[in-house]
Amino acid sequence: MKGLARISMVLLVVAVTGAAPAQEEFPGGLIVRSEDAAKLGTSQPATTPAIRPASLVPPKDEFGLPGPIWLFEMLLPATFFLHVLFMNVTLGTALLAIPMTVLAGRRPHVRVALDDLYAAWPVAMSLTITTGIAPLLFVQVLYGHFFFVSSILLGWHWLAILAALMMAFYGIYLAKYSAEQAEPPNDTVNPHRPTLVHWLALGVIALCCIFIAAMFTANATLMVMPDAWKRVHEGRQAGWLVHPMFWPRLAHNLIGSLAVTGMFIAIRARLASIAEEDTRIKTIAFGLLVALAATCVQVADGIWFVVAIFHEVVHAFHQPTAGTILWALAVLTAVALIVSLFRGLDHPERPRSVWVPTGLLAFILVGMSAGRERVRVGMLKQHVDALYQAGDVRPQTLTMILFAITLLFGLVLIALMVRWMFTAPQNEATLPP
To answer: Alpha-carbon distance 220 to 338, whole Å?
Structure first.
């Protein structure tokens, strides 16, 4: 109900500012009708003055926050980190499925890796949606009055995410089923060619996943740019072009998913039981190679990204916090990750060739999750009055206790499902009698 109230409030503000008679702003922020200006001893303006961007930011929730601000500021990047683990596998598989299908007919180890991805894809998609609820809710708790406005301004593009998500979700099952029907059981050397339905399913999934990533990136960008809301509302600017960081940020999401998916292939091959040892080693090497190529490209995109938000980065390091320090360490760790992946390709049979890059990549994701939050806070500092302060906290102890219990229970269940996903046999032929 509070969400509906916020949306109604935003619509009311937009309607009033778009249809109200000529107004004049007085010192202190008071706005009155132009015909009343003479009564206050001022001259009547010839034209309607521009609306201040800050006036489009709805007020904070009068009920305040149920817990301390630092707790939600910590839980948002923490739950987002958990979400991006599964999201990257889902998105990365969507981007890699077509080229890997082309290669799978000539390279058995690519076929093994592709079968692993198909087996994990539905689970990864489900966990992407499930783990995405928590960070989305925390964004609404801390920045709901910004987030709802940007969502409304994106309009049908934002609502179309639901249709794209359903198409991608069912498309994954269709692609998995058509892949199983296109090859004889236990035949990874001479598989049948994929059908037209399979190719179409992979194409639709890739387009839907890219669209969803673009819309979430656009919303995250637009919500921190209240100065652009009026231009977007009037149709003078597209909602995803309000800041130069949109394109490098979107590329950052897409390329990063390839690196995580490559490491997933290597981890799965490391843990799985594959009859041919040579095929297993080649599968591990293939996953490491994908992660290495994506990470190298990601470094170049990261430079583009930092240039686009250079002012915000400088401001963040003027007032360093734990999130800023983690962000800086993550950037340095990317160099160590590249070196580690190069060494791993020389000896892919060694366990540390997989586990060391995995640990480094996980730390990078933690640092990037914390860094993106610092950039968001930094860009909203100019509207500091619209952000929650310590005086806005209305403690709800019982609610927070119940939340903590359910959160821990959910994390345990997710950990069990991930363990089952990594340790499950590749196909029914390897199941014990």
So the answer is: 29
Reduced DSSP (H G I as helix, E B as strand, rest coil) percent helix, strand, coil of the chain, to 5 = 75, 0, 20
Q: Cβ neighbours of residue 351 under 8 Å, at least 6 residues apart?
A: 270
pTM above 0.70? yes
DSSP for 322-342 reads HHHHHHHHHHHHHHHHHHHHH
The CA-atom distances, in angstroms, between 355 and each of 89, 284, 346, 367 are 17, 11, 15, 19
How far is 368 from 280, CA to CA, in rounded Å? 31
Question: Any idea what DSSP says for residue 65?
Answer: B
Q: How far apart are CA 202 and CA 233, in angstroms?
A: 35
Q: Express each pLDDT in 67-77 by its tens digit.
A: 899 999 999 99
Instruction: Give the residue among 374, 377, 51, 76 at the shortest CA–CA distance from 224.
Output: 377
Let me know: does 380 contact 224? Beta carbons within 8 Å.
yes
What pLDDT digit, counting tens, does each position of 296-343 carry?
Answer: 999 999 999 988 888 777 776 667 788 888 988 999 999 999 999 999
Give the residue extent of every domain in the chain: 66-388+395-424
Q: What is d(CA 310, CA 126) in angstroms, rounded to the nearest whole number?
A: 36
Alpha helix (H) residue ranges in 182-276? 196-222, 229-233, 246-271
C-alpha 236/C-alpha 244 separation (Å) is 16
Alpha carbon distance, N-terminus to C-terminus of the chain: 54
Backbone angles phi, psi at 62, to 5 degrees: -65, -20
Q: How far apart are CA 251 and CA 304, in angstroms?
A: 10
Angstrom CA distances, 319 to 329, 375, 381, 386, stand at: 16, 12, 12, 20
